[in-house]
Amino acid sequence: MRAGEKLTGMFVHLRDPAVCESLGRLGFDTLCVEGEHTAMGPETIERLVSAVEHTPAAALVRVAGNDPSAIACALDAGAQGVVVPRVSSAAEAMAAVQAARLPPVGLRGLGPSRAAAHGTDIPGYQRRANDELLLAIMVETRQALEELDELVAVDGVDLVFVGPGDLASSLGIEDPRSPELRDAIVDVLARAREAGRLTGMFAATPEDAVRWHASGVNLVFLGSDMMWLTRAAAIALGDVRQAPANGATQG
Ligand code: 3PY
Ligand code: MG
Predict the structure, then answer these.
(1) Measured from the CA of 164, which atom of ligand 1 is nearest?
(2) pLDDT per position as a tens digit, 26-78
(3) Rounded distance, CA 198 to CA 214, Å?
(4) Whose CA is nearest to atom 4 of ligand 1?
(5) Is 37 a catalytic residue?
(6) What's the whole-model pTM score?
(7) From CA 249, how far away is CA 242, in angstroms rounded?
């Protein structure tokens, strides 16, 4: 991403590792195991991270919250980065950095985790981890907008990812296409970029993903596996229901 490559990822809600294996081989640059809006536990997250590793995609985990245990758990499972939701202040961004980085930068514990090859490569992991892991924080609240410059200036944050759904909800905006929301998002992305951060955005359609990439966004998550499954199934079912043989046009 630092070299200018635009990455496309997707959230993974479904808990069968086959989904990660299939999507990863389709060519997504990254898959983000969704620990925030699912009931996945640490063992499932570890299994899915491992499945993503069997593909060319990079494994990320969106953790349930800005919680050191959840962040450590995802990274210990072998995730190449974490996405931390609802980070609303510089202090919260610093807490995420402390949780995600090993000493001397942060406070994360080092142990015989899967990431450290179950204890057989602790020194190697210790050397690599702080440089190689991606820490993405999500800006998606009114408070984050109010403290944005301080928040994006926090050292140790690699990427600022906008959550348009929660941002709209926090700002009391009902129309996801409202110009007010779009302006707020564009402003966050520009100020994050000025502070030297990579940027990320959620897109619900390929057209939106292409537009965000063209505007300079480094990482776009194109919906989720569950979203595409449901959309494709709805279209297929609609086609069947509308077919003449089912009486739509032939009575
Ligand atoms: C949001 O839109 O709130 C999200 O978290 C999407 O990633
Ligand atoms: Mg959100």
Answers:
(1) 2
(2) 999 999 999 999 999 999 999 999 999 999 999 999 999 999 999 999 999 99
(3) 14
(4) 163
(5) yes
(6) 0.96
(7) 8
